[in-house]
Write the C-alpha coordinates for this entry.
Amino acid sequence: MKILRSMLFVPADSEKKMGKAASVGADALILDLEDSVAAVRRPVARQMALEYLRSADRTKGELWVRMNPLDSADALADLAAVVAGRPDGIALPKCDGPHHVHQLDHYLQALETQAGIPVGSIGITAIATETAAAPFTLGQYKGAPRLRILTWGAEDLGAALGASSNKDEHGAYTAPYVLARSLCLFGAHAAGVQGLDTVQPDFRAPDKLLRECNEARRDGFLGKIAIHPDQVAVINEAFTPSAAEIAHAQAVIAAFAANPEAGTLSLDGKMIDMPHLKQAERVMSIARQAGAL
Ligand code: COA
Ligand code: MG
Protein backbone atom coordinates (compact mmCIF):
# COMPACT_ATOMS: atom_id res chain seq x y z
CA MET A 1 0.00 0.00 0.00
CA LYS A 2 1.25 3.45 -0.88
CA ILE A 3 2.95 5.35 1.92
CA LEU A 4 1.55 8.83 2.53
CA ARG A 5 4.29 11.12 3.80
CA SER A 6 2.06 14.17 4.08
CA MET A 7 -1.70 14.46 4.54
CA LEU A 8 -2.93 18.07 4.39
CA PHE A 9 -6.15 18.99 6.15
CA VAL A 10 -8.35 21.31 4.13
CA PRO A 11 -11.59 22.71 5.61
CA ALA A 12 -14.13 21.48 3.05
CA ASP A 13 -16.29 24.61 3.25
CA SER A 14 -13.45 26.90 2.17
CA GLU A 15 -13.45 27.56 -1.56
CA LYS A 16 -10.14 29.39 -1.28
CA LYS A 17 -8.29 26.63 0.55
CA MET A 18 -9.80 23.87 -1.60
CA GLY A 19 -8.70 25.86 -4.64
CA LYS A 20 -5.15 26.06 -3.41
CA ALA A 21 -4.82 22.54 -2.03
CA ALA A 22 -4.14 20.66 -5.27
CA SER A 23 -1.01 22.68 -6.06
CA VAL A 24 0.64 22.22 -2.66
CA GLY A 25 2.25 18.83 -3.35
CA ALA A 26 0.79 16.83 -0.46
CA ASP A 27 0.74 13.06 -0.92
CA ALA A 28 -2.90 13.25 0.21
CA LEU A 29 -5.49 15.86 1.09
CA ILE A 30 -8.01 15.34 3.84
CA LEU A 31 -11.14 17.31 3.04
CA ASP A 32 -12.42 18.07 6.51
CA LEU A 33 -16.06 17.92 7.50
CA GLU A 34 -15.37 17.81 11.25
CA ASP A 35 -13.61 20.19 13.63
CA SER A 36 -12.50 22.87 11.14
CA VAL A 37 -16.06 23.32 9.83
CA ALA A 38 -18.80 25.03 11.83
CA ALA A 39 -21.94 22.90 12.29
CA VAL A 40 -24.09 25.25 10.20
CA ARG A 41 -21.62 24.98 7.31
CA ARG A 42 -21.59 21.18 7.21
CA PRO A 43 -24.27 20.72 4.56
CA VAL A 44 -22.38 23.11 2.26
CA ALA A 45 -19.06 21.44 3.09
CA ARG A 46 -20.45 18.00 2.15
CA GLN A 47 -21.55 19.23 -1.25
CA MET A 48 -18.25 21.01 -1.83
CA ALA A 49 -16.31 17.91 -0.85
CA LEU A 50 -18.33 15.79 -3.28
CA GLU A 51 -17.82 18.31 -6.10
CA TYR A 52 -14.11 18.40 -5.36
CA LEU A 53 -13.83 14.61 -5.42
CA ARG A 54 -15.63 14.48 -8.76
CA SER A 55 -13.71 17.22 -10.51
CA ALA A 56 -10.16 16.92 -9.11
CA ASP A 57 -7.24 15.49 -11.05
CA ARG A 58 -6.98 12.20 -9.19
CA THR A 59 -3.44 11.50 -10.39
CA LYS A 60 -2.04 14.36 -8.30
CA GLY A 61 -2.42 12.77 -4.89
CA GLU A 62 -4.91 10.86 -2.82
CA LEU A 63 -8.15 12.47 -1.66
CA TRP A 64 -9.52 11.58 1.75
CA VAL A 65 -12.46 12.94 3.71
CA ARG A 66 -12.61 13.40 7.47
CA MET A 67 -16.10 12.54 8.63
CA ASN A 68 -17.68 13.43 11.96
CA PRO A 69 -17.49 10.94 14.86
CA LEU A 70 -19.59 7.80 14.52
CA ASP A 71 -21.76 8.69 17.52
CA SER A 72 -22.75 12.06 16.03
CA ALA A 73 -25.83 12.79 13.96
CA ASP A 74 -23.54 14.05 11.18
CA ALA A 75 -21.70 10.79 10.57
CA LEU A 76 -24.11 9.06 8.20
CA ALA A 77 -24.97 12.30 6.41
CA ASP A 78 -21.24 12.83 5.77
CA LEU A 79 -20.77 9.34 4.36
CA ALA A 80 -23.98 9.37 2.34
CA ALA A 81 -22.82 12.61 0.70
CA VAL A 82 -19.22 11.76 -0.19
CA VAL A 83 -18.96 8.02 -0.94
CA ALA A 84 -20.27 8.52 -4.49
CA GLY A 85 -17.24 10.75 -5.11
CA ARG A 86 -15.06 7.72 -4.49
CA PRO A 87 -12.58 9.12 -1.97
CA ASP A 88 -9.39 7.13 -1.48
CA GLY A 89 -10.31 6.92 2.15
CA ILE A 90 -12.18 8.19 5.18
CA ALA A 91 -10.42 9.62 8.22
CA LEU A 92 -12.32 8.58 11.34
CA PRO A 93 -11.99 10.96 14.31
CA LYS A 94 -12.66 10.09 17.99
CA CYS A 95 -12.08 6.43 17.13
CA ASP A 96 -12.41 4.36 20.30
CA GLY A 97 -10.97 1.16 18.88
CA PRO A 98 -11.23 -1.45 16.13
CA HIS A 99 -14.97 -1.88 16.76
CA HIS A 100 -15.45 1.62 15.35
CA VAL A 101 -13.45 0.67 12.26
CA HIS A 102 -15.74 -2.36 11.82
CA GLN A 103 -18.81 -0.15 12.18
CA LEU A 104 -17.48 2.25 9.53
CA ASP A 105 -16.63 -0.70 7.27
CA HIS A 106 -20.27 -1.83 7.42
CA TYR A 107 -21.55 1.61 6.48
CA LEU A 108 -19.04 1.83 3.63
CA GLN A 109 -20.01 -1.59 2.29
CA ALA A 110 -23.63 -0.45 2.00
CA LEU A 111 -22.81 2.91 0.47
CA GLU A 112 -20.22 1.56 -1.98
CA THR A 113 -22.78 -0.98 -3.15
CA GLN A 114 -25.38 1.73 -3.59
CA ALA A 115 -22.91 3.93 -5.48
CA GLY A 116 -21.82 1.07 -7.73
CA ILE A 117 -18.17 1.22 -6.74
CA PRO A 118 -16.07 -1.78 -5.75
CA VAL A 119 -16.80 -2.84 -2.19
CA GLY A 120 -13.70 -2.34 -0.06
CA SER A 121 -12.11 0.27 -2.30
CA ILE A 122 -12.31 3.10 0.25
CA GLY A 123 -9.62 2.95 2.93
CA ILE A 124 -9.68 4.09 6.56
CA THR A 125 -7.36 6.25 8.66
CA ALA A 126 -8.17 5.93 12.35
CA ILE A 127 -7.43 8.99 14.47
CA ALA A 128 -6.95 6.69 17.34
CA THR A 129 -6.10 8.64 20.50
CA GLU A 130 -8.79 11.29 20.75
CA THR A 131 -10.90 9.79 23.52
CA ALA A 132 -10.09 8.61 27.02
CA ALA A 133 -10.97 5.03 26.06
CA ALA A 134 -8.94 4.97 22.86
CA PRO A 135 -5.39 4.40 24.23
CA PHE A 136 -6.50 1.11 25.81
CA THR A 137 -7.31 -0.42 22.41
CA LEU A 138 -4.28 0.65 20.38
CA GLY A 139 -2.82 -2.84 20.37
CA GLN A 140 -5.94 -4.40 18.89
CA TYR A 141 -6.11 -3.04 15.34
CA LYS A 142 -4.55 -6.02 13.57
CA GLY A 143 -6.95 -7.22 10.88
CA ALA A 144 -9.27 -4.21 11.17
CA PRO A 145 -10.95 -3.90 7.76
CA ARG A 146 -9.73 -1.25 5.30
CA LEU A 147 -7.27 0.17 7.82
CA ARG A 148 -4.26 1.85 6.14
CA ILE A 149 -3.15 4.40 8.72
CA LEU A 150 -3.18 4.91 12.47
CA THR A 151 -2.59 8.43 13.70
CA TRP A 152 -2.82 10.21 17.00
CA GLY A 153 -4.08 13.56 18.22
CA ALA A 154 -3.23 15.52 21.34
CA GLU A 155 -5.78 18.34 21.14
CA ASP A 156 -9.00 16.37 21.45
CA LEU A 157 -7.42 13.97 23.93
CA GLY A 158 -6.54 16.93 26.15
CA ALA A 159 -10.11 18.16 25.88
CA ALA A 160 -11.42 14.68 26.73
CA LEU A 161 -9.28 14.63 29.87
CA GLY A 162 -10.02 18.18 30.98
CA ALA A 163 -6.33 18.97 30.77
CA SER A 164 -5.36 22.62 31.10
CA SER A 165 -2.52 21.98 28.63
CA ASN A 166 -0.93 19.06 26.79
CA LYS A 167 2.54 20.68 26.88
CA ASP A 168 4.93 21.40 29.74
CA GLU A 169 6.70 24.70 30.40
CA HIS A 170 9.37 23.81 27.80
CA GLY A 171 6.81 23.10 25.08
CA ALA A 172 7.22 19.32 25.19
CA TYR A 173 4.21 16.99 25.33
CA THR A 174 3.40 15.86 28.87
CA ALA A 175 3.37 12.19 29.84
CA PRO A 176 -0.20 11.26 28.77
CA TYR A 177 0.43 12.46 25.19
CA VAL A 178 3.88 10.90 24.92
CA LEU A 179 2.22 7.63 25.94
CA ALA A 180 -0.55 8.08 23.34
CA ARG A 181 2.06 8.78 20.64
CA SER A 182 4.09 5.69 21.56
CA LEU A 183 1.06 3.42 21.75
CA CYS A 184 -0.07 4.69 18.35
CA LEU A 185 3.35 3.82 16.92
CA PHE A 186 3.35 0.33 18.46
CA GLY A 187 -0.27 -0.19 17.41
CA ALA A 188 0.39 0.78 13.79
CA HIS A 189 3.34 -1.61 13.48
CA ALA A 190 1.51 -4.39 15.32
CA ALA A 191 -1.37 -3.99 12.85
CA GLY A 192 0.96 -3.76 9.85
CA VAL A 193 -0.35 -0.33 8.84
CA GLN A 194 1.30 3.06 8.45
CA GLY A 195 1.88 5.22 11.52
CA LEU A 196 1.25 8.92 10.87
CA ASP A 197 2.46 11.58 13.28
CA THR A 198 0.07 14.26 14.52
CA VAL A 199 -0.15 17.94 13.56
CA GLN A 200 2.20 20.72 14.57
CA PRO A 201 -0.39 23.50 15.02
CA ASP A 202 2.26 26.26 15.07
CA PHE A 203 2.35 26.59 11.29
CA ARG A 204 4.72 29.57 11.27
CA ALA A 205 7.50 27.61 13.03
CA PRO A 206 9.27 25.48 10.39
CA ASP A 207 12.10 24.62 12.80
CA LYS A 208 9.71 23.09 15.32
CA LEU A 209 7.98 21.21 12.51
CA LEU A 210 11.25 19.84 11.17
CA ARG A 211 12.31 18.70 14.63
CA GLU A 212 9.02 16.87 15.13
CA CYS A 213 9.29 15.30 11.67
CA ASN A 214 12.81 14.06 12.36
CA GLU A 215 11.83 12.65 15.74
CA ALA A 216 8.79 10.94 14.24
CA ARG A 217 10.75 9.42 11.38
CA ARG A 218 13.52 8.31 13.76
CA ASP A 219 10.93 6.50 15.87
CA GLY A 220 9.17 4.74 12.98
CA PHE A 221 6.37 6.99 11.79
CA LEU A 222 6.22 7.23 8.00
CA GLY A 223 4.55 10.61 7.64
CA LYS A 224 2.93 13.54 9.36
CA ILE A 225 -0.29 15.51 9.17
CA ALA A 226 -0.11 19.07 7.78
CA ILE A 227 -2.60 21.84 8.42
CA HIS A 228 -1.01 24.58 6.32
CA PRO A 229 0.48 24.55 2.79
CA ASP A 230 3.85 25.78 4.07
CA GLN A 231 4.25 22.59 6.14
CA VAL A 232 3.97 20.16 3.25
CA ALA A 233 7.40 20.51 1.61
CA VAL A 234 9.14 20.26 4.99
CA ILE A 235 7.25 17.08 5.80
CA ASN A 236 7.75 15.47 2.37
CA GLU A 237 11.47 16.07 2.51
CA ALA A 238 11.86 14.90 6.09
CA PHE A 239 10.08 11.61 5.37
CA THR A 240 12.06 10.91 2.18
CA PRO A 241 15.32 9.05 2.80
CA SER A 242 18.35 11.27 2.12
CA ALA A 243 21.10 10.36 -0.34
CA ALA A 244 23.37 9.43 2.58
CA GLU A 245 20.72 7.15 4.12
CA ILE A 246 20.15 5.47 0.77
CA ALA A 247 23.89 4.97 0.25
CA HIS A 248 24.21 3.41 3.72
CA ALA A 249 21.21 1.13 3.11
CA GLN A 250 22.68 0.02 -0.21
CA ALA A 251 26.01 -0.70 1.49
CA VAL A 252 24.32 -2.84 4.15
CA ILE A 253 22.37 -4.81 1.54
CA ALA A 254 25.48 -5.23 -0.64
CA ALA A 255 27.54 -6.46 2.31
CA PHE A 256 25.05 -9.22 3.10
CA ALA A 257 24.61 -10.09 -0.58
CA ALA A 258 28.39 -10.54 -0.85
CA ASN A 259 28.41 -12.74 2.27
CA PRO A 260 25.25 -14.86 1.95
CA GLU A 261 26.20 -17.17 4.81
CA ALA A 262 26.98 -14.41 7.31
CA GLY A 263 24.52 -13.51 10.03
CA THR A 264 26.59 -10.60 11.19
CA LEU A 265 29.27 -8.46 9.54
CA SER A 266 31.25 -5.33 10.10
CA LEU A 267 30.65 -2.20 8.05
CA ASP A 268 32.70 0.97 8.58
CA GLY A 269 33.91 -0.39 11.89
CA LYS A 270 30.42 -1.17 13.22
CA MET A 271 28.56 -4.42 13.75
CA ILE A 272 25.58 -5.04 11.46
CA ASP A 273 23.17 -7.96 11.67
CA MET A 274 19.62 -8.89 10.68
CA PRO A 275 17.80 -5.84 12.16
CA HIS A 276 20.14 -3.58 10.17
CA LEU A 277 19.43 -5.51 6.97
CA LYS A 278 15.69 -5.30 7.63
CA GLN A 279 15.91 -1.56 8.23
CA ALA A 280 18.05 -1.08 5.10
CA GLU A 281 15.45 -2.88 3.01
CA ARG A 282 12.75 -0.73 4.55
CA VAL A 283 14.66 2.47 3.73
CA MET A 284 15.06 1.33 0.12
CA SER A 285 11.37 0.54 -0.17
CA ILE A 286 10.39 3.99 1.19
CA ALA A 287 12.92 5.68 -1.11
CA ARG A 288 11.59 3.80 -4.12
CA GLN A 289 8.01 4.87 -3.35
CA ALA A 290 9.02 8.48 -2.78
CA GLY A 291 10.80 8.52 -6.15
CA ALA A 292 14.12 9.22 -4.45
CA LEU A 293 16.05 6.50 -6.34
N1 COA B 1 -5.25 24.01 2.75
C1 COA B 1 -5.19 24.72 1.61
N2 COA B 1 -4.91 26.03 1.56
C2 COA B 1 -4.65 26.65 2.72
C3 COA B 1 -4.72 25.97 3.96
C4 COA B 1 -5.02 24.59 3.94
N3 COA B 1 -5.09 23.86 5.07
N4 COA B 1 -4.40 26.81 4.94
C5 COA B 1 -4.18 28.00 4.37
N5 COA B 1 -4.34 27.92 3.02
C6 COA B 1 -4.13 28.96 2.02
C7 COA B 1 -4.83 30.26 2.40
O1 COA B 1 -6.13 30.28 1.88
C8 COA B 1 -3.93 31.28 1.72
O2 COA B 1 -4.23 31.27 0.34
P1 COA B 1 -3.86 32.52 -0.60
O3 COA B 1 -2.36 32.51 -0.74
O4 COA B 1 -4.57 32.21 -1.87
O5 COA B 1 -4.37 33.74 0.11
C9 COA B 1 -2.54 30.68 1.87
O6 COA B 1 -2.75 29.28 2.02
C10 COA B 1 -1.78 31.19 3.07
O7 COA B 1 -2.57 31.02 4.22
P2 COA B 1 -2.31 31.86 5.56
O8 COA B 1 -2.84 33.25 5.38
O9 COA B 1 -0.90 31.72 5.93
O10 COA B 1 -3.17 31.10 6.64
P3 COA B 1 -4.65 31.43 7.12
O11 COA B 1 -4.54 32.43 8.23
O12 COA B 1 -5.49 31.75 5.95
O13 COA B 1 -5.13 30.05 7.70
C11 COA B 1 -5.41 28.24 9.21
C12 COA B 1 -4.57 29.49 8.86
C13 COA B 1 -4.73 27.49 10.34
C14 COA B 1 -6.81 28.69 9.63
C15 COA B 1 -5.47 27.35 7.95
O14 COA B 1 -4.17 27.01 7.60
C16 COA B 1 -6.35 26.14 8.04
O15 COA B 1 -7.56 26.25 7.88
N6 COA B 1 -5.77 24.94 8.27
C17 COA B 1 -6.50 23.72 8.32
C18 COA B 1 -7.17 23.57 9.66
C19 COA B 1 -7.81 22.21 9.82
O16 COA B 1 -8.25 21.61 8.87
N7 COA B 1 -7.83 21.73 11.05
C20 COA B 1 -8.38 20.43 11.33
C21 COA B 1 -7.33 19.42 11.53
S1 COA B 1 -6.39 19.66 12.99
MG1 MG C 1 -10.26 17.44 16.42
